[in-house]
Amino acid sequence: MFSMDQFLKETIFFYISKYIKSYIPSLLNVKKICISIEKEKRELAENRLLGLLFLYSKLSTDKIVTYYNQWFGELSRSTLSYYLNGLVKERILNKERMGKEIIFSLNKITYMDTSNPFWFTRNICPTPLYFHRIAHLEKKIITNTPEKELEYILNIINLNLLINRFEKCLFCKYSNREKIQTLINEARDVLNKRISIISIRLKDFMENFGELQIFGGTPLDYTIRGEKFPKEILEIVKDYKKEIDLQLELNKRIYELSFKRK
Predict the structure, then answer these.
(1) What is the average pLDDT value for the chain, to the nearest integer?
(2) What phi, psi does 111 have (nearest 5°)?
(3) For position 26, what pLDDT does the model report?
(4) What are phi and psi of 218, to 5 degrees?
(5) Which residues contact 1 (CB under 8 A, 6 or more apart)?
(6) CA angle 101, 105, 106 (to 5 degrees)
(7) At what angle do helices 127-144 and 41-56 cross, to 10 degrees?
(8) Residues 169, 253: contact at Cβ < 8 Å?
């Protein structure tokens, strides 16, 4: 479903952490936003498993255990295997043996209303999809050291992705809505300060890139690797360079003033 290099698969949380620490450190507890309900623990875990498989397409049992515990917290291999086999019995997942490994994948005939955010987040955790997109763009920043205007655009896109991720989580019946709303308010406050003099067209561009395609956002070509960036982003940077520079200068002055007050 998504083209993803192996290095990014293994290091998504490295890039997520780098982005949050450098750009919006108040959201460092971004993962801890679900309410643990013992009697519904299995259903929550199944939603998360489907989120991982929606992103990765196919995963071995070993990879599922590794990624699940990395993304969501500790669950034993035996528990996750039990949940996975339950989803196979319900014909939501397919299961096949490849050598010594058991491979799980989504059953393509299973009904999925992927265009409906409410349906999607009630059945499939969207966190892996959002975090993959953020990590992909953050990796571009870290490995290429782009010009400041391009870096600004990528950072704002990622901030929109975080906000959209939180807003989808509000639909989930397992979410800590009070905490999520606080995180949304904090993120929007940071966003509004950093785009205060940006034109509507440029804001719209960054908002659209800051949403997943399945929810109406701009498609992102994940096959563009190395030093290359999406053509649309490069063009918008060229068209709005002066405007972005003014915003960056304003942001710098506001930061300096707030630092002096401390």
Answers:
(1) 87
(2) -65, 130
(3) 74
(4) -75, 130
(5) 54, 55, 57
(6) 165
(7) 50
(8) no
Look-up of token digits 């620490």:
21
d(CA 71, CA 202): 32
Q: Which amino acid is residue 232, in one-letter code?
A: E
Question: Which three-class secondary structure string do you get for the chain?
Answer: CCCCCHHHHHHHHHHHHHHHHHHCHHHCCCCCCECCCHHHHHHHHHHHHHHHHHHHCEEEHHHHHHHHHHHCCCCCHHHHHHHHHHHHHCCCEEEEEECCEEEEEECCCCCCCCCCHHHHHHHCCCHHHHHHHHHHHHHHHHHHCCCHHHHHHHHHHHHHHHHHHHHHHCCCCCECHHHHHHHHHHHHHHHHHHCCCCCHHHHHHHHHHCCCHHHCCCCCCCCCCCCCCCHHHHHHHHHCHHHHHHHHHHHHHHHHHHHHHC
pLDDT in tens, 193-230: 999 999 999 999 999 999 999 899 999 988 877 678 99
**Domain residue extents for the chain:** 6-16+127-261
Q: How far apart are CA 121 and CA 78, in angstroms?
A: 26
User: In this predicted model, which residue has the larger pLDDT, 19 or 27?
Assistant: 19
Residue with tokens 């070993």: 62
If pLDDT is split at 50, 70 and 90, which confidence band does 172 have?
A: confident
pTM exceeding the 0.90 threshold for the entire prediction: no
Contact, 25 vs 70, CB < 8 A? no
Quote the tokens at residue 234: 């490069």
Fill in the amino acid letter for 246: L
Instruction: Enumerate the β-bridge partners of residue 34.
Output: 175
